[in-house]
Write a structure and sequence with these properties.
single chain; Transcription Regulator spoIIAA; Rossmann fold; eight-stranded mixed sheet; alpha/beta; seven-stranded mixed sheet; 19 helices
Length: 504
């Protein structure tokens, strides 16, 4: 793969926030950059803004004064598209409207040389559809940068149905030469990140809509137990509820209203009310002057049990056992395998979330998945009206003895983290099976693009080959809409392994 030579000028069309960021990346990499915008004067203003950001990099010792001056000299506002005639690469960052992008590329095709690479920074439109307006669709690819482009390393390099292999590899090598981490993917709705990230928002909203927990509690559990940098509610407030809901709706429509990507009615109402998050001063949370952030639900102190009895293999929760012993609580092991659970002194059971509900069994408390039970600072538990107060108190006291805050939520199958991770893992396996991207690129994309603590396949390996499938299958039995039906790819992943183990 050969990257674009530094002697080849790069053009960025669209001088908004994203266009400015992409232009800055190309500038710092050493290219002559031409910045064009259809609005008169906007390209000049954008060039000034880029220059100011370069000044700040010098102040922070991230760029030398000489390199700053050289970069500024290479940046040229272009008043007309015809000024881009000698460019080797043109990247558009204009409005997310198919006809607008198609018209732009049709005009460019009459201006630039035949070997000029064309790229769209679209995050939600089909690269194939955009290229469909061109005489030579093979020269166009997707180069999806993440905002802010100068800071975030990920670039999704998207091959449309007609994209030439040489165009995609050249774009990939160029992104890497610019210091970015490119991942290759096929032209699918949402590409990698916006396709596989949907359950992170959807499951949080589903728990909220079921009235099992409030946004502050769900966010705290996702952060403090799941290891996510931000919870779904605070993150969508940061992104903008209108923007996040629009992406969800776009992916859902592009998949012919596949139930796995169904938007949230609660989020729709928030958008309709004009409460778009931080930028409007109110979203899921109030950002007005003097507004206090709501606290997550945290259970009162309870007495820990004197002992627990382990029945079966605790699987992903096995690391709890040394923590319980370290807390001075006696751990007894039942040699007969009655299931996967901890028995409490009062006769109740403590079970890792498996997609079932407390109401289906006598005296059960479910607890949520954690990225790392030793490092987790909060655990969610659920109980129903038939769970005895003693069993719930013993479960709360046990986790508190391990140094965890405990959030008691409603009796929802899969709780919060478990159902979210299972669905992310499922969509990742499905994407690989359908040729969207490789396992490695998906893991890279999710860690760098949305700061997940683990890539979906890293998580899958840690949890065990059948864990996500089994949990989703139980969820599907309780909500047979198809939303939780495990994919064929996930089924094959787990059950092929079981077959091999059974015949070895």
């Amino acid at each position: 793969m050969t990257a674009l030579d530094l002697s080849g000028p790069v053009a960025v069309v669209g001088a908004g926030t994203m266009g400015q960021g992409i232009a800055q990346v190309a500038l710092v990499a050493g290219h002559l950059v031409r910045l064009h915008d259809a609005v008169p004067g906007r390209a000049d203003a954008a060039a000034e803004a880029i220059g100011e950001r370069l000044d700040r990099l010098v102040e922070k010792d991230r760029l030398s004064g000489a390199d700053r001056d050289a970069a500024r000299a290479r940046l040229r506002p272009a008043q007309d598209l015809s000024d881009l005639a000698d460019c080797a690469l043109v990247i558009e960052a204009v409005a997310e409207q198919l006809d607008v992008k198609q018209q732009l590329f049709r005009a460019l095709e009459d201006i630039v040389d035949a070997d000029c690479l064309l790229a769209t920074n679209t995050s939600s439109l089909s690269v194939t559809a955009i290229a469909g307006a061109l005489r030579n669709a093979g020269r166009l690819v997707g180069l999806h940068f993440f905002n802010p482009a100068p800071l975030l390393p990920l670039v999704e390099v998207v091959s449309g149905y007609a994209s030439d292999f040489s165009s995609a590899t050249r774009a990939y090598a160029t992104a890497r030469a610019w210091g970015k981490t490119p991942v290759a993917c096929a032209d699918t709705p949402g590409f990698i990140v916006n396709r596989i990230a949907r359950p992170f928002y959807a499951e949080a909203f589903a728990v909220y809509e079921s009235q099992a927990a409030d946004p502050a509690t769900i966010d705290a559990v996702l952060r403090e137990s799941g290891g996510f940098r931000m919870g779904a509610f605070e993150l969508t407030d940061l992104i903008g509820q209108d923007v996040n809901e629009s992406v969800t709706h776009s992916v859902w429509q592009a998949f012919f209203q596949d139930v796995r990507f169904t938007p949230s009615l609660a989020q729709r109402r928030l958008v309709e009310s004009g409460m778009h998050g931080r930028k409007t001063g109110h979203g899921w949370y109030d950002y007005g002057d003097g507004a206090e952030r709501p606290e997550p639900h945290t259970a009162e102190r309870a007495q820990p049990p004197a002992y627990v009895v382990v029945e079966g293999d605790l699987g992903p929760a096995a690391e709890l056992l040394p923590l319980i012993r370290e807390a001075g609580i006696l751990v007894r092991e039942d040699e007969e395998d009655h299931g996967t659970r901890l028995m409490l002194p009062g006769g109740g059971q403590l079970v890792l979330a498996d997609g079932q509900t407390s109401v289906e069994f006598r005296d059960v408390v479910y607890f949520d998945l954690a990225l790392d039970y030793r490092k987790a600072t909060r655990i969610a538990v659920s109980a129903c009206q038939d769970t005895s107060p003693q069993t719930l108190a013993e479960a709360i006291g046990l986790f508190q003895a391990l140094g965890k805050d405990v959030s008691v939520i409603g009796d929802v199958p899969g709780l919060i983290v478990a159902r979210t991770v299972a669905r992310i893992v499922d969509l990742a396996h499905d994407a690989v099976a359908k040729g969207v991207a490789t396992e490695e690129d998906i893991d890279t994309a999710m860690r760098l693009g949305v700061s997940y603590p683990l890539g979906p396949f890293e998580w899958s390996r840690r949890l065990g080959r059948t864990w996500a499938h089994d949990l989703l299958e139980e969820l599907h039995l309780r909500e047979p809409s198809g939303r939780y039906a495990p994919s064929l790819a996930l089924y094959r992943h787990g059950h092929t392994a079981e077959k091999r183990e059974g015949t070895s």
